Amino acid sequence: MKIAIHQPNYLPWIGFFDKLDCVDTFVLLDKAVHSKSGYTNRSKIKTPNGSLLLTVPLKNKEIPINELTIAQDRNWSIAHWKAIEANYKKSKFWSLYKDGFQAIFSKQWTHIAPLNIALIHHIKWLLQIPTKIILESDFNQDFGSKNERNAKIVSHLGGDIYISGTGAKVYNDENYFNERQIQLIYQNFKHPNYQQLFGDFLPNLSIIDMLFHCGPETIEIIRKQRLM
């Protein structure tokens, strides 16, 4: 059984969903401590002037993700939706997907984790990815940190293959996984190129950019690029 583990990011990029599609079970680390340099509350979309960073304002930042509260003194959801609408309303598949996303942005969210998880599940449904998603908080136990945490989660789920992002090479201990009879494999994601609005192709954006431009073919385009 293949397992992948990732923090629940806001409107994640394409590589997030490539990894989700590669495994049998995907664990969202909603108990991980939020990193200011991460993408728990940030995502990028494309505009005529290049990429635009959308940021959900947080009240508290250095606590577990599932405890992060959204600052309610700013109309961030209205601003985000207006930015998405302004830059994608002329894309080929805007009318196909806009209502589902607008419904999520129109809700009153008090915490970032439920918002991100709702968006991830909605996009997973649009892409028709069958992978099971589990929250770390569902386990009601402490798995430790880094290698210990990931290996214990994989073992707890009965997995024997752990799919890791390449960024984790700096701290992954392959021997630690091997000793626990878990095969460590790195995601070998090749970013697809596709037709976008506003000039030259711009990579590393939220998956919504690809959805609005490529529609139902999005997941097949991602799979054709897969190198593992």
Can you walk through the features of this model?
Helix 2 (76-88) runs antiparallel to helix 3. The chain has helices at 14-22, 76-88, 94-105, 112-127, 146-156, 174-179, 207-214, 218-225; strands spanning 2-6, 25-28, 42-47, 50-55, 132-135, 161-164, 183-186. It has 8 helices and 7 strands, in the order βαβββαααβαβαβαα. The two termini are 15 Å apart. It has 228 residues and is α/β, with parallel strands linked by helices. Helices cover 36% and strands 14% of the residues. The protein has a 5-stranded parallel beta sheet with strand order 5-2-1-6-7, sandwiched between helices. A two-stranded antiparallel ribbon has the order 3-4. The chain has one domain.
Briefly characterize the structure.
With about 230 residues, this protein is of the alpha/beta class.
Question: Secondary-structure blueprint of this entry?
Answer:
Elements: E1 2-6, H1 14-22, E2 25-28, E3 42-47, E4 50-55, H2 76-88, H3 94-105, H4 112-127, E5 132-135, H5 146-156, E6 161-164, H6 174-179, E7 183-186, H7 207-214, H8 218-225
Parallel strand pairs: 1-2, 1-6, 2-5, 6-7
Antiparallel strand pairs: 3-4
Helix pairs in contact: 2-3
